[in-house]
């Protein structure tokens, strides 16, 4: 069963430009097109906010942490992710 997908967000983009099951396919696409952005592993059928709490990466402590505005913008540095510049992995 597939539990996660790789999502590519280009630099300064408002929306994702690629969704991949296989990281190597994503890497090749990014390299072929000389893209700059971030490739992030996302859980399926679960929001990142809920995933981070379940994994112990985040613990809401204030009322603001439970607000829709906070949850809809939530991302986690604990998600596996890679930065690319002009198609190359930026270490």
UniProtKB/TrEMBL annotation:
DUF7710 domain spans which residues?
Answer: 5-88
InterPro entries referenced in this protein's UniProt entry, alphabetically: DUF7710
The UniProt entry, under Pfam families, shows: DUF7710
The organism's superkingdom is given as Bacteria
Q: What is this protein called?
A: DUF7710 domain-containing protein
- What lineage does UniProt assign to this protein's organism? Bacteria, Pseudomonadati, Bacteroidota, Chitinophagia, Chitinophagales
